[in-house]
Amino acid sequence: MFGFIRDRFPKEKSEFFTIGGHHQAPPPAGAPAVGLPPPPPADKPISKPMPPPPMFRPLAFREVGRAINDLLGRDYPTNGIRLETRSMTSTGVNFSVNGFRDAKTGAISGEMRTRYHDKVHGVVFSEGWSSNNVLSSTIEFFNTVSPGLRLEVNGSYNPTNGVKNARVAADYKKRNIFSRCNIDLFKGPVVNSDFCIHQNGLLIGGETAYNLRDSKLTRYNIGIGYNTPEYSLALQAFEGFNTYTASYFHKVSNELEAGTKATWNKSSAGPVNIEFGTRYILNKDAFVKAKIDMNGRLGLGYTQHLDNGVRVTVGGSFDTQRLGENVHKVGMNLSFFQ
């Protein structure tokens, strides 16, 4: 009988690899790889890359308290019926037609506008013609002179009575600073300017109006606010520190928003007017809004987005202290978007 001796655990076959053009044997088991840095000690944590610095979007002065102003002021069509249509051609020309019928006087007004944006050269040209026979034209330059700078030249003329107007404006944005200035050439002339500094959610800004002919400061307002994704606060002073407002906006959930605003006028020496408003999103296409102030004025609004870019808003303003009188207002907005 012939017997065969066989290793139960055969030895691994040695393999050679190349480093720097020379063949070398692999390192023994457990030894660090040749040519590679040794692993860090077990007690020293591996450092993670530093996150990029946060980017701040420049915000204008109108952004101070904007959330509560939109909650209490938008989507309440109480003065009449408004019709709006917007469309865009294949060449990038935008057309818009607006019409409004005043519920109190029955007067009908409207305007037709065209707008073309040359994205290659950063130029926007628009013109309009209103039912009052006012012809207007606007040309804008974006980032053509300097990054963050927008220049605008606007003019209007009424051939019926010869009234004309011209305005030159400039906006400058850089990181967390937003400043604007415009000159009304035929009214005064008046220089309007505002600025806003935005840092880590804190907004500080102001606006002024200066009459060059009379060398007089005709308007100055200041405001300070704090914005977060969940809530926002704002304190503002208007009309030369004659009117003061304090507001709070809270996004309770993805479906519910609420806020309140207090206004006090120093010259009238009256009580503080407090207004409360809320918005509830029913679904992705509809929401309802409601607001009420200390004088008992109740506002209601309902907005529905239909198919094919149709948006319908109905609303009303009701005096709860005089429900039996003819002092209530209702209205509707109908918009068509391409």
SSE topology sketch:
Blueprint: E1 17-19, E2 22-24, H1 66-73, E3 80-88, E4 93-102, E5 108-118, E6 123-130, E7 135-142, E8 149-157, E9 164-174, E10 177-184, E11 190-199, E12 202-211, E13 216-227, E14 231-238, E15 243-251, E16 256-265, E17 273-283, E18 286-293, E19 297-305, E20 310-319, E21 329-337
Instruction: Just name the CATH architecture of the domain at 228-338.
Output: Beta Barrel
Strand content: over 45%
CATH domain class of the domain at 228-338: Mainly Beta
Please bin the fraction of helical residues: under 10%
* Arithmetic mean pLDDT: 85
Please, what is the CATH homologous superfamily of the domain at 228-338? Porin
Category by helix and strand content: mainly beta
Q: Which topology of the domain at 228-338 does CATH recognise?
A: Porin
End-to-end gap: 95 Å
Please give the count of helices. Answer: 1
| H and E string | EEHEEEEEEEEEEEEEEEEEEE
Work out the radius of gyration. Answer: 33 Å
General form:
globular
- Most strands sheet: 19 strands, mixed, barrel
- Uncertain segments are 1-22, 50-55
Total beta strands: 21
**Multimerization status:** single chain
